[in-house]
Amino acid sequence: MGEQTQNQPHHDSTQPPPPPESSTAPSPNPSSSSTKIPFRPRKIRKISSDAPKENSGTKSLSIVDGDTKPTTTTATKNSKNRTVRVLPIVVARTLSCEGEIAIALRHLRNSDPHLARVIDVHQPPTFDTFQPPFLALARSILYQQLAYKAGSSIYSRFVSLCGGEAGVVPEAVLALSPHQLRQIGVSGRKASYLHDLSNKYRHGILSDASIVDMDDRSLFTMLTMVKGIGSWSVHMFMIFSLHRPDVLPVGDLGVRKGVQLLYGLEELPRPSQMEQLCEKWKPYRSVASWYMWRFIEAKGAPAAAVAVTTGASPQQQQQQQHQHQHQHQQLLDPINSIANLG
């Protein structure tokens, strides 16, 4: 995806997808089904180096309300008792899990008084719409660099070509030639992106199941290997499609501008500074980022104006504004605008 700055799909700005920008984010696609994203079980890691290799004992796993606690088990081998400390299976909760938003807001209020004031004046977000990962990723590619209306038109024709959203699967997309895609308004470059994504599914490098199960770091690495999908797109996908709770889109101009205004910084924080500045928001940086977009929206700082505050040259400002506008037109998935999210 012709991405720039940090792999971002010709955008690099304020918040989520589509028409949203500067303070607007994507909103649930009316045609997508509203279902909860399944938990992502993680593997057990044995901490003891002399843990028995055979099933010579029992393991007790403790999971309460999404929280896990290490348990101690005793295994017998060669008549010797050995104590093995294991890390139980961790069940990752998404933002669409019941009560998770309330937990996130409680944590953010307690950890950051500045953010608490922003939370107080906005309705909480909702993350309850889910599309199959392949469909969501294909959709994000199609919306790149397009105004929301134009993107919606092309997406509708693309879906019709596949026989409906249920038919948007790797095999169907690979069966479409670049010429067929060009006839419905898809550029040759985007056609190559769609085919690269589909081929990675066909060869087993990616799958809907593996995407849901992967941890954030691995998922970021795997998805940025797909042509046309950069860091900004992956962050938006993780937040608005998979509802991952702790994603910080460090390259998004809207989030960065929100942080600058929230803490009264003289300059727009660099992406490299964002991790440290937003450390206190963990493990709910996705929700905090959502509030940064709303904060910017309330402050009346449209996406196009953000570049002007960075001290860039006129040419750079124009380029950033261009990226910024496209970034929020990108409509990554469930959300069309921040305003519609909550």
Automatic annotation (TrEMBL):
User: GO cellular component annotations, sorted alphabetically?
Assistant: nucleus; protein-DNA complex
Q: Which InterPro entries match?
A: Alkylbase_DNA_Glycosylase/TA, DNA_glycosylase, HhH-GPD_domain
Q: Which domain of life is it from?
A: Eukaryota
Q: Which UniProt keywords apply?
A: DNA damage, DNA repair
Give the start-end ranges of region Disordered.
1-79, 309-342
Domain annotation HhH-GPD: ranges: 142-297
> Does the keyword DNA damage feature in the UniProt annotation?
yes
Provide a Gene Ontology MF annotation, just one: alkylated DNA binding
Q: Which residues cross the membrane?
A: none
Q: Does the keyword DNA repair apply?
A: yes
Show the ranges annotated as biased composition (Low complexity).
22-35, 69-78, 309-322
**Signal peptide stretch:** none
Which GO BP terms apply? base-excision repair, AP site formation; DNA alkylation repair
Q: What PANTHER family does this protein map onto?
A: DNA-3-METHYLADENINE GLYCOSYLASE
**Hey, which family's this protein in?**
Belongs to the alkylbase DNA glycosidase AlkA family.
Q: What is this protein called?
A: HhH-GPD domain-containing protein
